[in-house]
Amino acid sequence: MGHLSYEESIKKVYQGLILLGVVTLVEVGLSLFGKGYIVSGVEEYKAVIYLVGLGLIVLSLYKAYFIIYEFMHMRYEVKGLALSVLLPTLLLIWAIIAFFQEGGSWKDRRDQIQEKNAEPSDAQGIFDLNYSFVFGLPLCK
Amino acid sequence: MATTDTVVEHEVHDDKELWSGAKEPFKASYGKLMMWYFLLSDAFTFAGFLIAYGALRFSSPTWPVPDFVFKTHPFGDSELPLIFVTVMSFLLIISSVTMVRGVQEGHRNNTKGVVFWMLLTILGGIGFLSCQAWEWTNLIATEHMTVTRNPFGTHVEAGVYLNDDGSESDEVFEAGASYLIHKAGHHGHGDDHGDGHGGDEAHGDDHSDGHGDGHSADATAPGDYKGHVVDNQGFLHRKYKVTEGPDAGTVKYESFGPKSFGALFFFITGFHGFHVFSGVVFLFIIMINAASGLYVERNNGHEMVEKIGLYWHFVDLVWVFVFLVFYLL
Fold first, then answer.
1. Residue B223 pairs with which residues in a beta bridge?
2. pLDDT tens digits, residue range B75-86?
3. Which of B198, B226, B253 is the last residue of a domain?
4. A66 interface with B at CB cutoff 8 Å
5. Same-domain pairing of B213 and B242
6. CB contact under 8 A, A92 and B37
7. Which of helix, strand or coil describes residue B76?
8. What residues of chain B lie within 8 A of the CB of A57, using their CB?
């Protein structure tokens, strides 16, 4: 835009291409490392999986920042425009925390039901089980 | 003070102009501003899909491992995890860069440059769509994944696969290992089966009598065989003996993976692919307009190219996150 010369801005675009390409390759490498393709055995450690996941998310957010600020020229827009577009996305932080929490909770509940189903039960218990299946009530004795 | 008064007066004067329509809010044209807000709303739509994906993934005891699911590519037989989807990502990144170049030429009113760079952008978009078409075809036709069926499963216990006669084979697997359920008779496995008495338990049968004369038609018909189960849709679930944990010693067969994987994959990548497709259509229209010299005549010059550029970068931006959650994590 206005503050950069034509040649400078062209150079910047190709630097951006190299940057995004390198970040993408690093991401793929990191992902394969986390799955144990590069050094076998690392995928057994929980810490490695979490760190790789965190690294991938940070790199993706950096790519998103670069695309919005350089390619979409958000850097050169008025601050109010940038804020009015970017601030609403903060709502997503709440949605991510809430729904992922919910997903984990579904899994725990499913495990709980499976455990209950596997419990040895007497005749009365079997009757309860059938009863609860018919009416869709939670399992309770 | 006199200076303050003049400043205030000046501001009031400016405000009047701002609200009487002479000035653009945020110093951006109406079209560009609305494109930004459209993209914001679209971002929320995609975020809703991706958050649903995350919630369902967290709610499943297992989830198909992406480097196992996405290891196929059309260039030969070797299997390289994630290579094909990396090529797709690069196509979108490169087409984003050519788009920026097109916008830059638009600022200089260089019609030829705009058309050239937009044409390259369109080719990148078509290349991406072609790759996605191949990926989908492979998943649907070769690997039999649909929105309601996911043949990519994950073992939750360590075990050993059974031979066709019910004896233990030397194929040992750990908990967390991935498998793909094939159609019976499609991938060689169902072809060399020995005797298949339907319905009998192949529990701990260690001798290998009766291996040999079998009709593949029998072994691929729905039923319970010693080494596998064929379901009514013709899918072959291999049997295995659990070697660790509370169920050690029992024989189980491979079950389908979490159902929601297929639906989420096809809906989310399909919705993104639809954005790419509509982007290509709009790019094409605007390229034709630019080539006709329409934008040189306009007061706001090649702003239309800038607006489709914003949309195109957004498509690339969404892919960053689709790539992250479906292929990398």
1. B230
2. 876 777 888 999
3. B253
4. no
5. yes
6. no
7. coil
8. 324
Of A56-65, A112-121, A124-133, B116-125, the least confident: A124-133
- Domain assignment present for B171: yes
Q: Do B52 and A99 touch (CB under 8 A)?
A: yes
Of B253, B274, B307, the domain-final residue: B253
**Mean model confidence pLDDT for chain A:** 84
Do B82 and B143 fall within a single domain?
yes
- Does the beta-carbon distance from A28 to B86 stay under 8 Å? yes
CB proximity A56 to B under 8 Å: yes
Do B231 and B249 share a domain, yes or no? yes
Of the candidates B51, B61, B328, the beta carbon closest to that of A99 is on B51
- Asked if A10's CB is within 8 angstroms of B104's CB, the reply is yes
Q: Which residues in chain A touch residue B319, judged by CB atoms under 8 angstroms apart?
A: none
CA-based nearest residue in chain B for residue A98: B55
Q: Do B289 and B196 share a domain, yes or no?
A: no
Confidence at residue B19, expressed as pLDDT on a 0 to 100 scale: 62
Distance CA A52, CA B81 (A): 17
Say whether pLDDT at B50 is over 90.
Answer: yes
The yes-or-no verdict on residue A69 having pLDDT over 70 is yes
Q: Nearest CA to CA, how far is B97 from chain A (Å)?
A: 6
Q: Which domain holds residue B213?
A: 154-253
What is the Cα–Cα distance from A30 to B88, expressed in whole angstroms? 18
Q: Check whether residue B268 and residue B284 sit in a common domain.
A: yes
Residues 292-321 of B with CB under 8 A from A: 309-310, 313-314, 316-317, 320-321
Residues of A in contact with B65 (CB under 8 A): 35
- Is residue B236 domain-shared with residue B269, that is, in the same domain? no
Reported ipTM exceeds the 0.90 cut: no
**Strand-strand pairing, B228-230 and B223-224:** antiparallel
- Cβ distance A60 to B100 less than 8 Å, yes or no, reads no
Give the total number of structural domains in chain B: 2
Instruction: Quickly state the pLDDT bin for A111 (edges 50, 70, 90).
Output: confident
| pLDDT bucket at B186, cuts 50 / 70 / 90 | low
Q: Examine the domain organization and report whether B201 and B74 are in the same domain.
A: no
Measured from the Cβ of residue B166, the count of other Cβ atoms closer than 10 Å reads 24
Which of B43, B51, B67 faces A32 most closely, judged by CB atoms? B67
B36 in contact with A, Cβ within 8 Å: yes
Alpha carbon distance B257, B61 (integer Å): 10
Q: How far is CA B108 from CA B6, B101, B296, in A?
A: 39, 11, 10
Kindly list the distances between the CA atom of residue B233 and the CA atoms of B58, B77, B163, B251, B311, in Å, as whole numbers in the listed order: 29, 28, 22, 22, 43
B77 in the same domain as B41: yes
C-alpha gyration radius of chain A: 26
